[in-house]
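User: Could you go from structure to sequence for me? I need the amino acid at each position, not a summary. Structure tokens:
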């Protein structure tokens, strides 16, 4: 039986006062005439959002909304790292034997990414499967405890995620993620696939570049890049993104502690850092000021502070000296993938086969990095298609009630 405890979010008045005081005292930089987004987030945007955060954004209203969700915490023992108290949403379907689904967020997202999915995934219908949804805050994010010593990397995160599901009584479950949700999914499936994770789905299906020894046909196809426009365009776009949009990655993967001082002390600095990614990585999603500040406030009021989460970049890349998938390999656990056109981190679609056994693919006309928030109906449609009766992953977790 689970020993999870109900979680009620209660930011103190003192913390709210400190935030407002810091926003009152904020000092803004100058800006070049006509710079637009070329040099980073425009000054007018940050000033508007900072003023809204200080004078009009109602944290208490949003806090009450979150407290209407089924939120819990659970102590999870991690080998070599002691116990971590993990925050999560556990929204069960009315269908008793619905499919257990673990939803894992990324950066600069949080458990908030799942909110629009919950009513769709848990809906009961004779036409599609229903899901019990578990959406944790990764260690160091939001209201989960952070690791206290170095070396907490991919398999440690995977251990937390799997033990959480087992603690809730889900011996068999399916998995969905993008961004770090995808990366950690690779580790989780490598470690716990088949026995516990019966199938998984990614909306950011990236992995290593194919080699001749691992995937000879994909490798040979890659060599046709000079005459293969599709491969050439995708790779060129990926390289350009790496040149122009990955400064944050290098900093967080090499010197997260140095960056932590500004993020922990300056709400305006944190706002600009995250807001840039919300805009640049989405597909022209019409972010409201309240939505932006909800996401950023969760970072500001996070349990371990707004910068603890960035250490995941350092740990997964060993200080930016390796790729993020060290010690992982291809697996035969059924994999579904969704392609959203404005996902910044894209590789040729056929390279998804280097990750695992691809059984379901979907392509969409709209959507970016935050697919669950930007295009929730599309993402849920893909999951329903993958796990529905007659779908390629139907029955991987027995649905005794049918639908």
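Assistant: Here is the amino acid at each position, in order:
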């Amino acid at each position: 039986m689970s020993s999870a405890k109900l979680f009620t979010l209660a930011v103190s008045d003192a913390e709210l006062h400190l935030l407002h005081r810091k926003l009152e005292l904020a000092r803004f930089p100058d800006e070049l005439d006509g710079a637009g987004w070329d040099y980073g987030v425009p000054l007018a945007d940050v000033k508007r959002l900072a003023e809204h955060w200080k004078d009009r954004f109602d944290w208490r209203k949003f806090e009450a909304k979150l407290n209407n969700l089924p939120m819990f915490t659970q102590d999870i023992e991690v080998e070599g790292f002691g116990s971590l108290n993990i925050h999560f949403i556990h929204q069960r379907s009315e269908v008793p034997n619905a499919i257990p689904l673990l939803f894992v967020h990324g950066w600069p997202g949080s458990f908030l990414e799942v909110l629009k999915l919950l009513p769709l995934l848990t809906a009961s219908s004779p036409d599609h499967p229903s899901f019990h949804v578990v959406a944790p805050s990764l260690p160091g994010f939001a209201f989960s405890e952070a690791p206290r010593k170095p070396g907490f990397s991919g398999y440690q995160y995977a251990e937390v995620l799997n033990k959480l599901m087992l603690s809730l009584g889900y011996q068999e479950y399916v998995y969905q993620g993008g961004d770090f949700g995808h990366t950690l999914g690779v580790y989780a499936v490598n470690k716990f696939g088949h026995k516990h994770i019966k199938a998984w789905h990614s909306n950011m299906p990236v992995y290593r570049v194919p080699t001749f020894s691992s995937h000879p046909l994909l490798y040979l196809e890659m060599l046709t890049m000079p005459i293969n426009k599709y491969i050439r365009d995708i790779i060129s776009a990926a390289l350009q993104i790496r040149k122009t949009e990955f400064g944050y990655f290098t900093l967080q993967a090499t010197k997260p502690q140095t960056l932590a001082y500004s993020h922990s002390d300056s709400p305006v600095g944190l706002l600009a850092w995250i807001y840039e990614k919300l805009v640049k990585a989405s597909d022209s999603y019409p972010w409201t000021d309240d939505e932006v500040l909800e996401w950023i406030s969760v970072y500001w009021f996070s349990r371990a502070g707004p910068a603890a989460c960035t250490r995941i970049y350092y740990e997964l890349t060993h200080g930016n000296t390796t790729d993020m998938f060290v010690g992982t390999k291809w697996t035969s656990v059924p994999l579904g993938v969704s392609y959203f056109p404005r996902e910044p981190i894209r590789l040729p679609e056929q390279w998804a086969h280097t990750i695992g056994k691809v059984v379901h693919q979907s392509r969409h006309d709209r959507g970016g990095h935050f697919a669950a928030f930007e295009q929730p109906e599309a993402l849920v449609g893909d999951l329903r298609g993958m796990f529905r009766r007659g779908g390629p992953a139907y029955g991987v977790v027995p649905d005794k009630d049918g639908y």
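One structural detail worth keeping in mind: Residues 223 and 231 are 9 Å apart (CA to CA).
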